[in-house]
Design a protein that fits this description.
89 residues; mainly alpha; TIM Barrel; two-stranded antiparallel sheet; elongated
Length: 89
């Protein structure tokens, strides 16, 4: 992903990090970390977890006042809700 971002920057292409519909906050957190690592993201970053009735993380990634905050902490900065995952299996 980073090599692609550098290549796009080198040849003057603008980037949008878009994800699939109805993903969990696991994928949304990964997308936000990628967005934070790219120097020029003029087309922005979209996540697909905002309309989900359930999310497999303890604290789902949410937009507040039109802004996402990149999760902090080890790994992607999110905690998987293991009980919910087991109940959905």
């Amino acid at each position: 992903m980073m090599r692609g971002a550098v290549l796009c920057d080198t040849v003057g292409l603008e980037i949008n990090l878009a994800v699939k519909i109805a993903e969990s906050s696991i994928a949304a957190a990964a997308n936000l970390h990628c967005a934070a690592a790219i120097s020029d993201l003029r087309f922005g970053c979209s996540t697909g977890n905002q309309g989900n009735a359930l999310d497999v993380t303890e604290s789902p990634v949410r937009m507040i006042d039109g802004v996402f905050t990149v999760p902090t902490g080890p790994g992607l900065g999110i905690e998987v809700d293991e009980k919910l995952v087991k109940s959905l299996a």
